[in-house]
Amino acid sequence: MASGLAEPGPPVTDGGAGFGWGWARRARAGAPLLGVVPFLAFVGIFLAIPTLVVAIGAFGDATGRPTLGNVEALGTSTIVDAFVRSIVLSASTALIGASAGAMIAYTVVTARPHGLLRRVVAAASGVLAQFGGVTLAFAFLATLGFNGFVTVFAQHTLGIDITGSGWLYQLPGLMLVYTYFQVPLMVIVFLPALDGIRPQWREAAEGLGGSTWQYWRHVGIPLLTPSFLGSTLLLFANAFSAYATAAALVSQGSPIVPLKIREAITSEVVLGQANVGKALALGMVLVVGVVMIAYARLQRRTARWLG
After folding, report:
1. 254-259, long-range: CB within 8 Å, 24+ apart, which pairs?
2. pTM for the predicted model, two decimal places
3. How far is CA 46 from CA 38, 43, 50, 71, 293, in A?
4. Which fold has domain 77-306?
5. pLDDT tens for residues 144-157?
6. Residue 60, φ and ψ in degrees, nearest 5
7. Distance between CA 51 and CA 185 in Å, rounded?
């Protein structure tokens, strides 16, 4: 009996075209991810793999057998003192650099937006923040060292010995040198937060009869505090992990942790301490990790109103 409905025929296939189109769609969707492949490769080679090597070596002896001796060595008085000095050095230079850099950044923000002052300070800060390592140590040695031109000038002209007991080659000298590159770094990282303070907020406070002090107390300072603290933590991590400047400036002794690691790896007096150096490096990774987690949390809070 005939029916008004056509009987279903065999399924129509596209000869694999559907699979081809599906593959093409997936390829187009994944194309933007190709841009992060170099970054992921860089992070894996220079961060993830070295961290894994350090973590494994910290719990192994020279023959590769598991041991807790390297980690237990972190409790010795010399290593504890090195960590304390590193934390004091990093915290003091971070606070000094953050305070001075914030004031400089505020001066720049209150000037003309595209004026000469802002361009000069921003350019100088970008250069000086990267001026570190052996070059910076040599600059201070040539200036304030035993035969530096400022030292020689003070001795022959003013009759003053500014070298003292060699403070430049000890912890006070490291504080001075580290502060030199901490200040411009603070200017760079704190400028966006100051730029995020909208003039309308100041005008609104004045329209409601608020004074300048009340505006900063109830609006400006609360908004800038997370960014300021986050920038200070970034400066702490920057100083805590610095090595080249201290290695070039301090030729004797190992007052801070990075130099302790160098001593453990290269010492010709006490052999077989390479894995102790890895345990020291693991301790530094943990400290910096805690600091950067706190920094990320503060940055997320700052982004709420900067956005």
Report:
1. 254/82, 255/82, 255/85, 255/170, 255/171, 255/174, 256/82, 256/85, 256/86, 256/89, 256/171, 256/174, 257/79, 257/82, 257/83, 257/86, 257/283, 257/284, 258/86, 258/284, 259/82
2. 0.83
3. 12, 5, 6, 23, 20
4. MetI-like fold (1.10.3720)
5. 888 888 888 888 88
6. -140, 155
7. 26
